[in-house]
Amino acid sequence: MRSWKKRSISAALALTCVAAPMAQPMTAYAASTAEKILYGAAAMLFISSYYSKMDDESQLQLLDQCQQETGVYDSAEADNRVQTVYQNLKDTGHVLRDYKVYVSPSEDINAFASLGGVLCVNKGTLDQMDDDELAYVMAHEIAHGEKRHSVSGLKKRVGLVTALNIYLGDASYGEYLLGNIAANYVSNAVFTKDQEKQADDWGFQYLVEAGYNPGGGAASMEVLRAKYGESSPSGIKAVLAPGNHPKTSDRIHKNLKWMNAYSGKHVEVKDDWIVVNGEKAFSPAQDNAYSQKERLYLTAGKLVKLYHAGHVPDAVLEGDRICCGNTVIYELSSEEDGRAYTEALNQGIRKDRGERVVSDFDIDQRVKKVTRD
């Protein structure tokens, strides 16, 4: 009888939350330990349902809150740039939600995804990154939205005791309190390191699916590392208090591993050299627009993309450019030996031109896995 009663209470509490998450829950009374546990589970489900509803239905309100807090950068060029990148990511068919994207006037290199599918990119990010790098930053933030990380993060911020008080207390005040909690985190990250790692992973997938340079991820992380060191910022306020992201060098290393896998393990970056089929090709030099490591990752990324497609043609020196077919792999500075670079690159290419890579990066298989999750 006692076991049946516990199951009935649990089912009733769960049904109350799912069927009417915004309705007034049952009145509190002197509960047993078992019932308190059940109330706790129901209370957390209630909070999760509240924020899920806000995430699904309050996009314009949350957009307004974000823009009031951050300001909006008044530039048609900047807006067009982020909207174009977003649309390219969306057009893959694997970004399922619709997002509101805008640019803030902050000079910090940063971006954040808020509850409701709102994505803010700082002007400083646009100033310091090219479109391949920007696409990875935006893809990373979109991944947070696709996995509903804001909902789970806010749920943790509420905590069990507060959740119980809200669930068993006055409904209107509870909603007011939950709204205030959400507002406090509207432009500040509530994500864990594991969620950041997951967003990095999915960000790389979105990046390459949209046709951007696979090296954009590592290069964007290098821009962050050069400015902020090992703990890159998260959210608009975390420039002053970073800590929930993995070490930036670890994020670069992970992107390089994904690049290697995406190439069918034909291309890797090792000791600041581009290596093709085990042969050292060259180590790119810094130029006015990019640091040495940015050029290293972006140049390697072009080769990675070619090897993913398979049957890589010989590299050819055309003036101050090294090309493989229609792809410009590298633009030389006046001090660099283009012939030596091209010869070394072809030594690696001719060892193995590669076949189309489908086993590790099959989009249909990934979508099936996402559906199962």
SS-based structural class? mainly alpha
Q: Which spans have pLDDT < 50 for at least 5 consecutive residues? A: 1-29, 235-243
Mind summarizing the main beta sheet? 3 strands, mixed
Distance separating the two termini: 36 Å
Strand element count: 9
* Cα-atom radius of gyration: 25 Å
Approximate shape: elongated
The total of helices stands at 15
Largest sheet: spatial strand order? 1-3-2
Helix content: 55-70%
> Strand fraction band?
5-15%
The overall pLDDT average reads 81
Give the SSE order as H and E letters.
HHHHEEEHHHHHHHHEEEHEEEHH
Describe this structure in words.
The protein is mostly helical and 373 residues long. Among the domains are: 93 residues, no CATH class; 110 residues, no CATH class. Helix content is 57%, strand content 10%. A three-stranded mixed sheet has the order 1-3-2, sandwiched between helices. The radius of gyration is 25 Å and the shape is elongated. The N terminus is likely disordered.
